[in-house]
Amino acid sequence: MKVYLDCIPCFFRQALEAARWATTDVQRHRAVLDEVAALVPRLPIDATPIDMGREIHRVAKEATKAPDPYRKVKRRCNDRALELSSACRQRVDASSDPLLAALKLAAAGNVIDFAVRSNFDLEGSIEESLGDGSRLADYALLEERLERVEELLYLGDNAGEIVFDRLFVEHLAKLGKRVTYVVRGQPIINDVTVEDAAYVGMDGVAQVIPSGSDGPGTSLRWCSDEFIARFKEAGLIISKGQGNFEGLSDERRPIFFLLTVKCPVVARELGADIGKILLRAQKDWRKIAT
Amino acid sequence: MKVYLDCIPCFFRQALEAARWATTDVQRHRAVLDEVAALVPRLPIDATPIDMGREIHRVAKEATKAPDPYRKVKRRCNDRALELSSACRQRVDASSDPLLAALKLAAAGNVIDFAVRSNFDLEGSIEESLGDGSRLADYALLEERLERVEELLYLGDNAGEIVFDRLFVEHLAKLGKRVTYVVRGQPIINDVTVEDAAYVGMDGVAQVIPSGSDGPGTSLRWCSDEFIARFKEAGLIISKGQGNFEGLSDERRPIFFLLTVKCPVVARELGADIGKILLRAQKDWRKIAT
Q1: Out of B9, B26, B38, closest to residue A9 by CB
Q2: Neighboring chain B residues of A33 at a CB cutoff of 8 Å
Q3: Regarding beta strands B255-260 and A207-210, do their DSSP bridges make them parallel or antiparallel, or are they unpaired?
Q4: How far apart are CA A77 and CA A200, in angstroms?
Q5: Second label for A149, Cα 20 to 30 Å away, from A270, B131, B197, B215?
Q6: Nearest to B34 among A6, A9, A41 (CB)
Q7: A contacts of B30 (beta carbons < 8 Å)
Q8: Cross-chain residue pair A33–B5, CB shorter than 8 Å
Q9: What is the pLDDT of residues A251-285, one digit of tens each?
Q10: Which among B170, B185, B154, B104 is positioned nearest to B255, based on CA atoms?
Q11: Cα separations (Å) of A152 from A103, A173, A196, A238?
């Protein structure tokens, strides 16, 4: 997915938020915005939001001398989600289709996203997703695919959310699937890293590997050769969140995108409403998934 | 009121919206954003949002060769408000305190503001303001002041909204007050000009004068000497909207600010919630209004 001009105001908002998480020094905040302003005219027309996001968060980190401005807030998100997890696990296990319930919960957890907004209603999002009795549009396709594969790649997105990913991964494991959970290669916004995966025990239920990318999403341009090899041979990829969608929407691989729709640009690209959870098979699924 | 760093993302959003009203040429849209990016590092720390708004809308107009991008949408807003006006007039006249009802309606009309967002709920805002039986916080102060003056300055803000201003001005005229209604000196966003005042018949109930300013609000820095003289001698000034508040919040004159709170920065400055209508006497009112 290419960057839209609508993303540019959002980049400034993100840069300012990152600078504020990093330092209380208003002059540093201003310096970050000035440097982001210098990037705008150099933004290639075919850039993805991830390419630009990577640059602006690099600027924010360097100008504030804070290599991981969201570290504390990520920890709080993980802790909050861990507090909710045992009640959520009980509700998932008690539901008529635990795999679907766990999938919805993982999608609802994607509401935690400091790239979009720092105020979100996690509990409300959980209630809405679990209270809705309907299936998700491409769930039947996912079930069909799951029957044909033994292992899958699961691309994580945000801290906190990873706790709900873990519940879903546990259900995939119950079906006998081997899951490789992919985290970012470097800290970026509130995205999951190896440290978060260890903190919430994801390494107990899945193999955890970094993508190598230091961007706020999975764009193969920034990933390691090792990850790209795994990506290209995977028979099923579950991709969480907007950032991974932005980077992979044009890759002809067997991907299911699982996310909460949070910004107008992604909503337009997906033809979906803001606030909805979504499971969407990659375009031309039937041609890809042979 | 000085510009906050939070205003910078908003300036880019405004510039993009203005460019899109002016032309469908995406390359022109991009050129506008690049030029606004070049302005950011040159923004003085003591600038007001009006100073910067004036610059970015100048850029948008020049780069798209459209001297008045909002002309058509302003006409539509005026027409929509005119359609609603006779029903509103009846409701105001039938209320127990017609002046207060007209005041609230004028504040509700301020929801029309393309500087903040191009989707707004005018009818909902009207219903909420007229349905609320409470007085506005500083209404008693305004009543007291109205008893002591024979004429007043009324600083208009947006097209459409001006129709509701007119209903309020009619009630001021019934009290025997001579009203001078002030419009912008040049087209800027959807703000009122002499043309809008004539279109909705404001010139039939008030003297209409331009402020001389080409900024999206009344900042004395950009106003004509003639207007400044009127402003300095006025015994009562009613100032509509956020833009006029941004420019006049530090002027020690007998001003009542009447507006719908629409952005987080102005909400913080006023200590009020977004979405609320507000009548607020200038700081230190008792010292000023002697």
Answers
A1: B9
A2: 5, 8, 40
A3: unpaired
A4: 11
A5: A270
A6: A41
A7: 5, 45
A8: yes
A9: 999 999 999 999 999 999 999 999 999 999 999 99
A10: B154
A11: 15, 11, 20, 8
Please check whether residue B16 is in contact with residue B33, taking contact to mean a CB–CB distance below 8 angstroms.
yes
Q: pLDDT grade, residue B45 (50/70/90)?
A: confident
Quick one: tokens of A22? 């990093």
In whole angstroms, give the CA distance from residue A230 to residue A178: 13
Q: Which residues are paired to B264 by β-bridges?
A: none
**Identity of the amino acid at A134:** S
Angle (CA) B26-B31-B33 rounded to 5° is 95
Is B50 within 8 Å of B170 (Cβ atoms)?
no
Q: Are the beta carbons of A283 and A266 closer than 8 angstroms?
A: no
Instruction: Return all residues near A67 (Cβ < 8 A) that are at least 6 apart.
Output: A61, A187
3-class state of residue B97 by DSSP: coil
Chain-centroid distance of CA B87 in Å reads: 23
Cα A233 from Cα A255, distance rounded (Å): 12
User: Which residue do the tokens 């909207």 mark?
Assistant: B241
Task: Match 């359609």 to its residue by tokens.
Answer: B83
B226 is written with which tokens?
């003639």
CA dist list (Å): A166 to A56, A65, A123, A211 = 30, 33, 17, 18
Buried b (16+ CB within 10 A) or exposed e, A183-221: bbbbbbbbbbbeebbebbebeebbebbbbbbbbbbbbbe
Chain B residue numbers with beta carbons less than 8 Å from the beta carbon of A23 are none
SS3 B260: strand
By three-state DSSP, how is residue B243 classified? helix
Distances (CA, A) of B51 to A14, B214, B243, B284: 24, 10, 11, 25
pLDDT at B121: 86
**pLDDT tens digits, one per residue of A86-111:** 999 999 999 999 999 999 999 999 98
What whole-number distance in Å separates Cα of residue B51 and Cα of residue B227?
A: 18
- Interface contact A13-B9, CB threshold 8 A: yes
Establish if A175 touches chain B: CB-CB under 8 angstroms. Answer: no
Which pLDDT band, with edges at 50, 70 and 90, does A72 fall under? very high
User: What is the residue type of A152?
Assistant: L
Question: Could you tell me which residues come within 8 angstroms of residue B119 by beta carbon, excluding any fewer than 6 positions away?
Answer: none
Could you give the CA distance from residue B244 to residue B208 in angstroms, rounded to a whole number?
17
The residue count of chain B comes to 290
Name the token pair of B132.
């609320």
How many C-beta neighbours within 10 Å does residue B12 have?
25
Strand order from edge to edge, sheet including A151-155: A207-210, A178-183, A151-155, A237-240, A255-260, A277-281
* Spatial contact of B81 and B125, defined as CB atoms under 8 Å apart: no
Each residue's pLDDT tens digit, A22-50: 999 999 999 999 999 999 999 988 899 99
Spatial distance between the Cα atoms of B49 and B44, rounded to a whole number of angstroms: 11
